[in-house]
Amino acid sequence: ALNFGRYLQKVNIIKDFMQDLEEFRCFWPTELNPDLNPMRLIKDQDAKGQRLKLLEEMIREAMVEFKPTFAYILSIPRKRRLRGYFRFCIMAAIMATETLIKMRNNEAVFTNKEGVKISKLQFYKIYLYSKFGFYTKRWLKKYIHKVYEAPQVV
Predict the structure, then answer these.
(1) Within 13 Å, how many C-alpha atoms sit on residue 26's CB side?
(2) What is the mean pLDDT of residues 52-78?
(3) What is the mean pLDDT of the chain?
(4) Quick check: helix, strand or coil at residue 104?
(5) Which phi and psi angles does 136 have, rounded to 5°?
(6) Span 126-146, pLDDT tens digits
(7) DSSP string of 20-80?
(8) d(CA 115, CA 14)
(9) pLDDT digits (tens, 9 = 90+) for 2-25
(10) CA-closest candidate to residue 59, choices 114, 2, 12
(11) CB 14 within 8 A of CB 100
């Protein structure tokens, strides 16, 4: 459960970079790039490679929580009284994962004040699949393998 919470939080920290910066907050670790002011990183056109390298490091750090998050969700007993909890967890975890995939190598993380988000269509699909129980344990295991083994995410 702790990994699950950290996973969601790390994804949000990456996704909300511009919004946080606009409100004078920066949650990205300074040790990733201690010599660089975040505003200079964003405004300097020559820093694109540096920005994307930092972004990849942040995504890699979030992915540390990926397998334990889904292991936790898969461990939730399939009892009637926990069905809603399972569906909530799986919806949040899949939305976070799909957001991470969309952020990979995406300059919009540093330019879009709204952050990088999945489409409304993708959101509704995840919501409906969660609500109606289409995410089976078998499907989840395939999803975990597909995402974790995909070189563009890890």
Answers:
(1) 16
(2) 93
(3) 87
(4) coil
(5) -85, 165
(6) 999 998 988 888 899 999 989
(7) HHHTT---S-GGGSTT--HHHHHH-GGGHHHHHHHHHHHHHHHHTTHHHHHHHHHHS---G
(8) 9
(9) 999 999 999 999 999 888 888 887
(10) 12
(11) yes
Cβ pair 94, 46 in contact under 8 A: no
Give the whole-angstrom CA distance, residue 93 versus residue 7: 8
Quote the pTM value. Answer: 0.87
Assigned token pair, 132:
């109606």
And the tokens for 47?
């820093």
Orientation angle between helical segments 66-75 and 83-103, nearest 10 degrees: 160
Q: What is the dihedral of CA 66, 8, 138, 78, to 10 degrees?
A: 130
